[in-house]
Write a structure and sequence with these properties.
- The longest helix has 12 residues.
- α3 packs across α4.
- By secondary structure, the protein is an alpha+beta fold.
- The radius of gyration is 18 Å and the shape is elongated.
- It has 2 domains: 63 residues, Arc Repressor Mutant, subunit A, CATH 1.10.10; 80 residues, Glutaredoxin, CATH 3.40.30.10.
- The structure holds FE2/S2 (inorganic) cluster (FES).
Length: 178
Amino acid sequence: MSLKIIHQERQEFSAERMAEVQALIAQYPEGKHKSALMRILHMAEEDFGGWLSVETMNYVAEILNIQAIEVYEVATFYTMFNLEPTGKYVFEVCRTGPCMLVGSDNIIAYLEEKLEVKMGGTTADGMFTLKTAECLGACGYGPMLQCGKQYHEHLTKDRIDEIIASYRSGVVPKEIAR
Ligand code: FES
């Protein structure tokens, strides 16, 4: 993924959150503070609207006293980080081999049709963003997608209809038991 240059007014962690950040950093030996980077980026997404602007990444670099490029490298490598504003719910659909063999392509096409948006885009109502992801560790339960901390597995068109309807009503859909 390349770095998208999307700007946002600089935001800073609350005093309480900064204390949490500093406690996290303190868990690592001197000179190894960069190890806290990914967790801090997740915190920044949680606190600053669900995505990482250039200003936010620069801010995180300042906190860790590292070069901004070191933050960009991580944020652009991992697909779980959002580099532009997203919808309320982000669907990350696994497209790696095992899921592809059981129909992830069809699921991706159906999601695009159903939500009237292409992968990488956000629906006009701001509810859903579609993304693809590499293996999410549920290879035996594909096709699958992740939304926040929730996995949705054994996807079919009917199941997708149910999942979307549930999110639209503000309820995180229950996952089918494995
Ligand atoms: S290949 Fe899809 S979860 Fe592993």
